[in-house]
């Protein structure tokens, strides 16, 4: 199949590269010239494990190319995916569809022959109808079928997720698109990844309903964690105790500083706005958003309380800035709010993150960046693990203790056992664990 991917970001690049790895002929288009120049030079514009190698292999084998020229790249293709950003619109929290609709308009002007247009971006219900309307308006003779195919990959495990998805959801109104989409995903179908065909609006809603459910599940265990601290229970054991129930499932039951990232915050908000517009409010998700928003700042206060109630002029070392490990993505990371809360209370912040510091510099002011956890901990009055990168799982606690001014260890991801840390002379605070 001849495939073009519009948008070479976290989703577009990974999807495009994986499609080429299946044997399809793929062009990844982005309007960001720096991104395309980097890719052409063999440099990855994002950090995603395994990406560089599979890009190199598929470019070498002639199945993968990059371009900034949308017009040239959409002629004579079987399938064109739109994988551009859909951030929250400033002011009202609705999904900002301007990038999707601009791309659709541009594609319509240059597309030739029967082409399946696929929205891979996360878009509110009804966007497929709007994409189709805009394209027909821009080019009434364009022979197109507009399909919804939301993406469920997770940053940090994106390639594996794309190649071994739990399911592939395809929403369509024009049956001519069905064999084309089946062919696009045939290699995965042979791997027994189920292809779920639905109506287009249903497919659009599946993505939001899924993400909002996961955000709610995280928020639920976070509130249970708070209760655990009050009643003297252990949230990790509660999570295991409920997670073994097949109706609940063990995943997304890790208590922490609140969800963040480029998807959950904006997608929960967009779902709530859609539901309100249709006078069918989803109160569970409205509450999820409110609880999660207050939690992040409360995590800053948790550090302050652990430090005896005053951090003015004291140095706090933050380990982990990205919203989760194995990505450089800083969008809506809880670390941003936590650091702001600490700075508002007068703390001096030193931070270390294996991959996120370049992006963090653009978002966080007055932070000193260190090149290792131990440099960050030098003379610190508190050490806070915000993101559970693997390299923070076996820190040399004796070395940290020797470097710090005050041995306070706040573990927002419950990476460590209480006894392990206290044995080295630290006071230790975890999440949802009585006595640590
Ligand atoms: P991103 O910001 O990393 O990438 C979007 C890219 O699109 C940018 O590089 C931008 O320059 C490019 N672009 C915008 N308009 C363009 C145009 N007209 N022509 C060419 N390029 C254009 O975003 P992302 O994280 O990859 O997310 C893309 C979509 O996928 C969003 O709707 C998001 O909600 C959804 N999604 C993201 C994830 C994730 O983990 N990041 C997972 C599932 C779904």
CATH class of the largest domain: Alpha Beta
How does the major sheet shape up? 6 strands, parallel
Number of domains: 2
Number of strands: 14
Number of H/I helices: 18
Molecular structure report:
The structure is a single chain. The chain is an alpha/beta fold and 436 residues long. It folds into two domains: 2-197, Rossmann fold, CATH 3.40.50; 199-436, NAD(P)-binding Rossmann-like Domain (Rossmann fold, 3-Layer(aba) Sandwich), CATH 3.40.50.720. Helices cover 44% and strands 14% of the residues. It has a six-stranded parallel β-sheet, sandwiched between helices. It has a six-stranded parallel β-sheet with strand order 11-10-9-12-13-14. Strands 7-8 form a two-stranded parallel sheet. α17 (397-403) links the parallel β12 and β13. The longest helix has 32 residues, at 200-231. The protein is globular and about 70 Å long. The structure holds nicotinamide-adenine-dinucleotide. Nicotinamide-adenine-dinucleotide binds at residues 6-12, 29-32, 35, 70, 83-86, 99, 102-103, 121-122, 151, 153, 155, 262-263. Nicotinamide-adenine-dinucleotide is lined by residues 6-12, 29-32, 35, 70, 83-86, 99, 102-103, 121-122, 151, 153, 155, 262-263.
